[in-house]
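::Amino acid chain::
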Amino acid sequence: MRYLFIFALLFGSNLQAQQRFYFVSFKDKPNFKTQLYQPATYISAKAIERRTRNRVPLNENDIPPDSAYLRQLAAFPLTMYGNSRWFNGTVVLSAQKYIADSIKLLPFVSAVTYLGPAFFYEEMDDASENSLENQLNILEQSFQNKNEKNDTIMAGKSFAQIKQLNDEGLVKAGIGGKNVLIAVIDAGFKNADQLVPFRKLMKEKQILSSYDFVEKEEEVFDDDPHGTAVLSCMAAVQQGLILGTAPNAQYILLRSENAANEYLVEEYFWALAAEYADSAGADIINSSLGYTKHDEKSMGHKFSELDGKTTLITRAAEIAASKGILVVVSAGNEGDDPWRQISAPADAAHVLTVGAVDKFNSYAGFSSVGPTADKRNKPDLTALGKGVALLAADGKVFEGNGTSYSCPLIAGAAAQLLEMAPKSSAERMKEALILSGSQYYKVDKYTGAGIPDIELAAKMLCVQQDSLLDVRELQDQNLHLCLNARAPQKVILTIEEPIKGEIDRITLTLKKGSNRFVIKGYKKRPSGLYHLSVEFLSRKTYLDFMKL
C-alpha cells in the first residue's frame, strides 16, 4: 500500500507538471539508400510529378526518420508529436522534467533541443483573440453598397486589390488556379467551413486535407480566425462582394501557429507543415507567419541570424523551395517598430517575400524592410496590404492591414500563372513575377521590385517564340520593353515618329527567355504616336502603339 501511495503521488504530480516540447535529432538514416528508390512509400504521386517538372532529384532528406529509432524513443513517457524527414528527428511532448537527459543517452540520438512549454488553444482562448487583434491591427470599416464603375468581374470590395495587380483580365477569363494545389500554413481557419464566400470551396471539395500541428488533430476550423482572412484573399467567392485571386485552386489547410504565445516549437511545427505540403504534392505554399522575438528571450532571433541559412524556419523554407514548391511568405509588419526588418523565413533566398503597399501604390509604413543580414534584397515584391478586403470569422467583409494579406494575393495569382503555364517551374514563375514588377529596374529595401503585373508575367511564361511582349512607360518616365528570345541573340530596336520622321536605333543583347530593358532619356514626341520595330536574327516584328 505504501508503494502504491507513493506511485499515486508521483503520478498526480506529473499530471500537474508543465508539459514541454523537445526536438530529438537522430545521428543518421541507416536504411535511406534502400528507401530512396521507393518514393511511393513516403511521398505522393503528385509530389513526384512536381519534382519531375522542376527537375528535382530525390535525396536523403526525403526519407523519413528510421522506424527502429522511433520505436525505441516511444518507450519513454512522452507523446510523439511529429516526425521530420528534412531535419531527421521528431518533436516530442513530455511532462517529465529531466527526460531530455535520459533521451540523450540513446546511441542514435545526436541532440535534444528544448522548444518551449505546451499551451493549447482551449486554455488560452481569450488571450489568443486579444493578441491577434493587437498583432494584425485590423479595423472594420464601412463600404459603399455599389461596386466600382469599372468592376466588370463582379469582384466587389476585392476589385481594387485585383486591379492593382493587373489581374482582372485573367480573372474575367475564368483563370482561377484550376488543378493547382496551394498549402496554407497559418494560425487557424475559424468558421471557414461555414461561411457563404467559401461555399464553393466546400461544395466542390477543393480542400483536399487539413491538419493542426498544434493540437495534433485534423480539425482546423475551430481555432484562430487569422487564416480565415488569409484564405479569403485567395479562395473567397461571393459575386459583387468579395473575390480571391485563386477561387478554383485546391487547398491544404495547415495550422502551425498558436497565436496566444511565441516559442521555438512553432517554427518546428511550421517545418512539419511544410513537409506535409511537400509530401502531398503542393505546388505553392502560402505562409503569412513570421518570427523574430519569442516569449522566452533565448529562443528569439537577432537580426544577424536573418542571413537565409540560420533559423530553423528559414532552413525549412529553403528546403521546401528546393523541392520545386513556390514558397510565398509575408515580409512582416515591423516597419514602424524598432525592429523594422523582415522576419524569418522572409530572409530565405529562394522564397518569394511579399511586402505591402497602399491603394496609391505607395509603401505601407508598417511593412517590414530589408535587406537581409547578408545584404540581399528583400522583400521581392509587394501587393495591397493596407485596406485589403477580407472575410472575418463571423462572415463580415472588412478592411485589414498587414503583409499577411498582400502575401496570399500574390500566392493566388501565382496559381493562376501555373494554370496557364502548367509546365513552368517554381523558379521560373518566381523570376517572371519579379521581372514583371513595377520597379524591377530599381529594387529597393521597401518594396523590392514593386507590384507585379500578372498579365505580363503570364505572357512571359506562355510565350514560345521570339516576341516583343510589352512596351510601356513606368514611374521613372522612361520607356520599358519586354522581349522574349528562344536563344541568346542581339536585336535592333527602331523607334520612328511618323510625322517628323525622327528615328532612334538601339542594339540590345538578349538572353534566352524573358528580357526587360529601360530606354533611358526617351522624350515624348509631340504626336505621341510611334512605329516600333524589333529585328530579331531571322525575322522582324512590328508593333504600332499609342504612347500614354
